[in-house]
Design a protein that fits this description.
heterodimer, A: alpha+beta, Heat Shock Protein 90, five-stranded antiparallel β-sheet, B: four-stranded mixed β-sheet, 32% strand, binds adenosine-5'-triphosphate, binds magnesium ion
Amino acid sequence: MLGSPLNNTRGARVKTRNHMRLLFDSRSENESFARVAVSAFMSQLSPTIEEMSDVKTAVSEAVTNAIVHGYRDTFGEVEIESSLTHDGYVVIEVSDAGCGIEDIERAMTPFFTSQPDMERAGMGFAVMKTFMDDLRVESRLGEGTRVTMRKLISNAAGKQ
Amino acid sequence: MLKHARQGNTVTVKLDGELDQNSAARVRRELDDLISDARIKHLVLDMQDLTFMDSSGIGVVIGRYRALATRGGGVAVRGESSHVRRIMKLSGLYSILEEAR
Ligand SMILES: Nc1ncnc2c1ncn2[C@@H]1O[C@H](COP(=O)(O)OP(=O)(O)OP(=O)(O)O)[C@@H](O)[C@H]1O
Ligand SMILES: [Mg+2]
Protein backbone atom coordinates (compact mmCIF):
# COMPACT_ATOMS: atom_id res chain seq x y z
CA MET A 1 0.00 0.00 0.00
CA LEU A 2 0.99 3.64 -0.09
CA GLY A 3 4.12 3.95 2.04
CA SER A 4 3.42 3.23 5.66
CA PRO A 5 -0.30 3.67 5.98
CA LEU A 6 -1.56 6.34 8.23
CA ASN A 7 1.54 8.32 9.07
CA ASN A 8 -0.78 11.08 10.08
CA THR A 9 -3.25 9.23 12.28
CA ARG A 10 -0.64 6.94 13.72
CA GLY A 11 1.30 9.85 15.16
CA ALA A 12 -1.94 11.23 16.48
CA ARG A 13 -3.09 7.96 18.01
CA VAL A 14 -2.72 9.27 21.56
CA LYS A 15 -5.14 12.02 20.69
CA THR A 16 -7.85 9.63 19.54
CA ARG A 17 -10.34 8.06 21.88
CA ASN A 18 -10.58 4.85 19.94
CA HIS A 19 -9.12 3.24 16.85
CA MET A 20 -9.56 0.12 14.72
CA ARG A 21 -8.11 -1.52 11.64
CA LEU A 22 -9.69 -4.03 9.27
CA LEU A 23 -8.10 -5.98 6.43
CA PHE A 24 -10.22 -7.99 4.01
CA ASP A 25 -10.19 -9.55 0.54
CA SER A 26 -11.24 -7.43 -2.42
CA ARG A 27 -14.57 -9.21 -2.89
CA SER A 28 -17.76 -7.27 -3.34
CA GLU A 29 -19.43 -9.52 -0.74
CA ASN A 30 -17.29 -7.61 1.78
CA GLU A 31 -18.89 -4.25 1.00
CA SER A 32 -21.78 -4.80 3.39
CA PHE A 33 -19.38 -6.23 5.97
CA ALA A 34 -17.29 -3.04 5.75
CA ARG A 35 -20.36 -0.80 6.11
CA VAL A 36 -21.66 -2.71 9.11
CA ALA A 37 -18.24 -2.88 10.79
CA VAL A 38 -17.61 0.85 10.49
CA SER A 39 -21.10 1.78 11.62
CA ALA A 40 -20.88 -0.55 14.64
CA PHE A 41 -17.53 0.99 15.53
CA MET A 42 -18.72 4.58 15.21
CA SER A 43 -21.91 3.91 17.16
CA GLN A 44 -19.85 4.77 20.26
CA LEU A 45 -20.22 8.39 19.19
CA SER A 46 -24.04 8.10 19.24
CA PRO A 47 -24.52 9.29 15.65
CA THR A 48 -27.96 10.09 14.32
CA ILE A 49 -29.49 7.67 11.82
CA GLU A 50 -28.72 10.15 9.08
CA GLU A 51 -25.07 10.54 10.09
CA MET A 52 -24.80 6.77 10.24
CA SER A 53 -26.19 6.29 6.75
CA ASP A 54 -23.98 9.09 5.37
CA VAL A 55 -20.87 7.33 6.67
CA LYS A 56 -22.05 3.90 5.53
CA THR A 57 -22.62 5.24 2.04
CA ALA A 58 -19.21 6.93 1.88
CA VAL A 59 -17.49 3.75 3.10
CA SER A 60 -19.39 1.74 0.53
CA GLU A 61 -18.21 4.05 -2.26
CA ALA A 62 -14.56 3.94 -1.21
CA VAL A 63 -14.50 0.17 -0.68
CA THR A 64 -16.31 -0.47 -3.97
CA ASN A 65 -13.77 1.72 -5.77
CA ALA A 66 -10.87 -0.19 -4.23
CA ILE A 67 -12.40 -3.47 -5.40
CA VAL A 68 -13.65 -2.54 -8.87
CA HIS A 69 -11.03 0.03 -9.89
CA GLY A 70 -7.98 -0.50 -7.69
CA TYR A 71 -7.99 -4.26 -8.18
CA ARG A 72 -9.76 -4.10 -11.54
CA ASP A 73 -8.11 -7.12 -13.14
CA THR A 74 -6.49 -8.48 -10.04
CA PHE A 75 -7.20 -9.39 -6.51
CA GLY A 76 -5.83 -8.00 -3.28
CA GLU A 77 -6.64 -6.68 0.13
CA VAL A 78 -8.53 -3.60 1.21
CA GLU A 79 -7.68 -1.90 4.48
CA ILE A 80 -9.93 0.29 6.55
CA GLU A 81 -8.49 2.22 9.42
CA SER A 82 -10.79 4.31 11.55
CA SER A 83 -10.38 6.60 14.54
CA LEU A 84 -12.83 8.37 16.78
CA THR A 85 -11.40 11.62 18.04
CA HIS A 86 -11.96 13.36 21.35
CA ASP A 87 -13.53 16.27 19.55
CA GLY A 88 -16.20 14.07 18.00
CA TYR A 89 -14.92 13.16 14.54
CA VAL A 90 -14.99 9.80 12.90
CA VAL A 91 -11.94 9.51 10.63
CA ILE A 92 -11.89 6.73 8.04
CA GLU A 93 -9.10 5.70 5.71
CA VAL A 94 -9.73 3.18 2.96
CA SER A 95 -6.61 1.91 1.18
CA ASP A 96 -5.79 -0.51 -1.57
CA ALA A 97 -2.55 -1.64 -3.15
CA GLY A 98 -4.06 -1.61 -6.61
CA CYS A 99 -3.38 0.19 -9.87
CA GLY A 100 -3.54 3.74 -8.53
CA ILE A 101 -5.13 6.81 -10.11
CA GLU A 102 -3.37 8.65 -12.91
CA ASP A 103 -5.22 11.95 -12.63
CA ILE A 104 -6.88 12.42 -9.24
CA GLU A 105 -8.53 15.70 -10.13
CA ARG A 106 -10.19 14.22 -13.18
CA ALA A 107 -11.19 11.10 -11.21
CA MET A 108 -12.94 13.28 -8.63
CA THR A 109 -14.92 15.23 -11.20
CA PRO A 110 -18.61 14.32 -10.90
CA PHE A 111 -19.78 11.97 -13.68
CA PHE A 112 -16.25 11.00 -14.67
CA THR A 113 -15.84 7.25 -14.84
CA SER A 114 -13.21 5.07 -16.45
CA GLN A 115 -15.81 2.28 -16.78
CA PRO A 116 -18.84 3.77 -18.58
CA ASP A 117 -19.43 0.40 -20.25
CA MET A 118 -19.98 -1.10 -16.78
CA GLU A 119 -22.92 1.27 -16.21
CA ARG A 120 -21.05 3.35 -13.67
CA ALA A 121 -22.36 6.79 -12.89
CA GLY A 122 -19.05 8.37 -11.93
CA MET A 123 -20.66 9.59 -8.71
CA GLY A 124 -18.68 7.76 -6.02
CA PHE A 125 -16.30 10.59 -5.10
CA ALA A 126 -19.12 13.15 -5.32
CA VAL A 127 -21.15 11.07 -2.85
CA MET A 128 -18.17 10.79 -0.46
CA LYS A 129 -17.58 14.51 -0.69
CA THR A 130 -21.21 15.41 -0.06
CA PHE A 131 -21.83 12.97 2.78
CA MET A 132 -18.60 13.58 4.69
CA ASP A 133 -17.02 16.82 5.94
CA ASP A 134 -13.58 16.21 4.41
CA LEU A 135 -12.28 14.00 1.66
CA ARG A 136 -8.64 13.53 0.70
CA VAL A 137 -7.36 11.20 -1.99
CA GLU A 138 -3.74 10.13 -2.31
CA SER A 139 -2.64 7.79 -5.04
CA ARG A 140 0.40 6.57 -6.88
CA LEU A 141 0.27 4.67 -10.14
CA GLY A 142 1.09 1.03 -9.62
CA GLU A 143 1.21 1.43 -5.85
CA GLY A 144 -2.29 2.06 -4.69
CA THR A 145 -4.80 4.56 -3.41
CA ARG A 146 -5.76 5.89 -0.03
CA VAL A 147 -8.97 7.80 0.62
CA THR A 148 -9.24 9.66 3.92
CA MET A 149 -12.60 10.98 5.08
CA ARG A 150 -13.75 12.74 8.20
CA LYS A 151 -17.13 13.60 9.62
CA LEU A 152 -18.14 15.43 12.76
CA ILE A 153 -20.74 13.51 14.76
CA SER A 154 -23.03 16.07 16.32
CA ASN A 155 -23.81 14.22 19.57
CA ALA A 156 -20.13 13.59 20.23
CA ALA A 157 -18.89 17.06 19.32
CA GLY A 158 -17.25 18.80 22.24
CA LYS A 159 -17.70 15.84 24.61
CA GLN A 160 -14.40 14.59 26.04
CA MET B 1 -36.90 -13.08 -8.06
CA LEU B 2 -37.96 -9.50 -7.41
CA LYS B 3 -41.67 -8.93 -6.76
CA HIS B 4 -43.25 -7.36 -9.79
CA ALA B 5 -46.53 -6.63 -11.53
CA ARG B 6 -47.32 -5.80 -15.12
CA GLN B 7 -50.09 -3.53 -16.25
CA GLY B 8 -50.28 -2.71 -19.94
CA ASN B 9 -46.92 -1.35 -21.04
CA THR B 10 -45.75 -0.71 -17.47
CA VAL B 11 -43.87 -3.03 -15.12
CA THR B 12 -43.66 -2.19 -11.44
CA VAL B 13 -40.84 -3.84 -9.50
CA LYS B 14 -40.31 -3.86 -5.77
CA LEU B 15 -36.65 -3.51 -4.83
CA ASP B 16 -35.64 -4.74 -1.41
CA GLY B 17 -32.59 -5.06 0.81
CA GLU B 18 -29.35 -3.36 -0.20
CA LEU B 19 -28.46 -2.17 -3.68
CA ASP B 20 -24.68 -1.93 -3.92
CA GLN B 21 -21.99 -3.17 -6.29
CA ASN B 22 -22.44 -6.67 -4.88
CA SER B 23 -26.15 -6.94 -5.64
CA ALA B 24 -26.21 -4.66 -8.71
CA ALA B 25 -25.41 -7.41 -11.22
CA ARG B 26 -28.29 -9.59 -10.04
CA VAL B 27 -30.78 -6.70 -9.86
CA ARG B 28 -29.70 -5.51 -13.31
CA ARG B 29 -30.20 -8.99 -14.76
CA GLU B 30 -33.64 -9.41 -13.19
CA LEU B 31 -34.81 -5.97 -14.28
CA ASP B 32 -33.60 -6.56 -17.84
CA ASP B 33 -35.50 -9.82 -17.83
CA LEU B 34 -38.68 -8.07 -16.69
CA ILE B 35 -38.46 -5.42 -19.40
CA SER B 36 -37.24 -7.72 -22.16
CA ASP B 37 -40.67 -7.65 -23.86
CA ALA B 38 -40.28 -4.77 -26.34
CA ARG B 39 -43.88 -3.65 -25.69
CA ILE B 40 -42.91 -2.57 -22.20
CA LYS B 41 -42.13 1.12 -22.10
CA HIS B 42 -42.29 2.10 -18.46
CA LEU B 43 -40.53 0.72 -15.42
CA VAL B 44 -41.65 1.79 -11.95
CA LEU B 45 -39.15 1.02 -9.19
CA ASP B 46 -40.80 0.74 -5.79
CA MET B 47 -38.03 1.55 -3.31
CA GLN B 48 -40.07 1.33 -0.13
CA ASP B 49 -38.18 -1.76 1.10
CA LEU B 50 -34.76 -0.68 -0.13
CA THR B 51 -32.64 -0.26 3.00
CA PHE B 52 -29.42 0.91 1.35
CA MET B 53 -28.29 2.25 -1.98
CA ASP B 54 -25.05 3.77 -3.23
CA SER B 55 -23.85 5.00 -6.62
CA SER B 56 -23.91 1.46 -8.00
CA GLY B 57 -27.70 1.78 -7.78
CA ILE B 58 -27.60 5.02 -9.74
CA GLY B 59 -25.85 3.15 -12.53
CA VAL B 60 -28.57 0.49 -12.50
CA VAL B 61 -31.36 3.07 -12.78
CA ILE B 62 -29.61 5.02 -15.55
CA GLY B 63 -28.94 1.83 -17.51
CA ARG B 64 -32.63 0.80 -17.47
CA TYR B 65 -33.63 4.37 -18.34
CA ARG B 66 -31.40 4.27 -21.43
CA ALA B 67 -32.95 1.01 -22.60
CA LEU B 68 -36.53 2.23 -22.14
CA ALA B 69 -35.91 5.72 -23.51
CA THR B 70 -35.10 4.18 -26.89
CA ARG B 71 -38.66 2.75 -26.83
CA GLY B 72 -40.08 6.15 -26.01
CA GLY B 73 -40.59 5.27 -22.33
CA GLY B 74 -38.62 5.62 -19.13
CA VAL B 75 -38.19 4.87 -15.45
CA ALA B 76 -40.06 6.17 -12.41
CA VAL B 77 -39.27 5.61 -8.74
CA ARG B 78 -41.47 5.75 -5.67
CA GLY B 79 -41.21 5.16 -1.94
CA GLU B 80 -37.53 6.07 -1.78
CA SER B 81 -36.05 7.01 1.60
CA SER B 82 -34.64 10.48 2.17
CA HIS B 83 -31.17 8.92 2.05
CA VAL B 84 -31.78 7.44 -1.40
CA ARG B 85 -33.39 10.68 -2.52
CA ARG B 86 -30.24 12.63 -1.64
CA ILE B 87 -28.06 10.33 -3.72
CA MET B 88 -30.45 10.48 -6.66
CA LYS B 89 -30.66 14.26 -6.43
CA LEU B 90 -26.90 14.57 -6.34
CA SER B 91 -26.60 12.63 -9.58
CA GLY B 92 -29.37 14.57 -11.29
CA LEU B 93 -31.53 11.47 -11.68
CA TYR B 94 -34.78 13.29 -11.04
CA SER B 95 -34.40 15.24 -14.25
CA ILE B 96 -34.67 12.02 -16.30
CA LEU B 97 -37.18 10.12 -14.17
CA GLU B 98 -40.83 9.89 -15.09
CA GLU B 99 -43.63 10.73 -12.67
CA ALA B 100 -44.59 7.55 -10.77
CA ARG B 101 -48.16 6.50 -11.38
N1 LIG C 1 -9.22 2.98 -5.56
C1 LIG C 1 -9.11 3.34 -6.84
N2 LIG C 1 -8.11 2.85 -7.63
C2 LIG C 1 -8.00 3.22 -8.93
N3 LIG C 1 -8.84 4.07 -9.55
C3 LIG C 1 -9.84 4.60 -8.84
C4 LIG C 1 -10.03 4.26 -7.45
N4 LIG C 1 -11.10 4.96 -7.00
C5 LIG C 1 -11.56 5.67 -8.04
N5 LIG C 1 -10.81 5.47 -9.15
C6 LIG C 1 -10.99 6.12 -10.46
O1 LIG C 1 -11.80 7.28 -10.28
C7 LIG C 1 -12.94 7.23 -11.12
C8 LIG C 1 -14.11 7.93 -10.43
O2 LIG C 1 -14.54 7.21 -9.27
P1 LIG C 1 -16.04 7.37 -8.78
O3 LIG C 1 -16.25 6.48 -7.62
O4 LIG C 1 -16.33 8.82 -8.60
O5 LIG C 1 -16.88 6.89 -10.03
P2 LIG C 1 -17.07 5.39 -10.57
O6 LIG C 1 -16.59 4.41 -9.55
O7 LIG C 1 -16.43 5.30 -11.91
O8 LIG C 1 -18.64 5.28 -10.72
P3 LIG C 1 -19.68 5.01 -9.51
O9 LIG C 1 -18.95 5.23 -8.22
O10 LIG C 1 -20.76 6.01 -9.72
O11 LIG C 1 -20.13 3.60 -9.69
C9 LIG C 1 -13.16 5.77 -11.40
O12 LIG C 1 -13.87 5.54 -12.60
C10 LIG C 1 -11.72 5.26 -11.48
O13 LIG C 1 -11.17 5.54 -12.74
MG1 LIG D 1 -17.17 4.48 -7.56
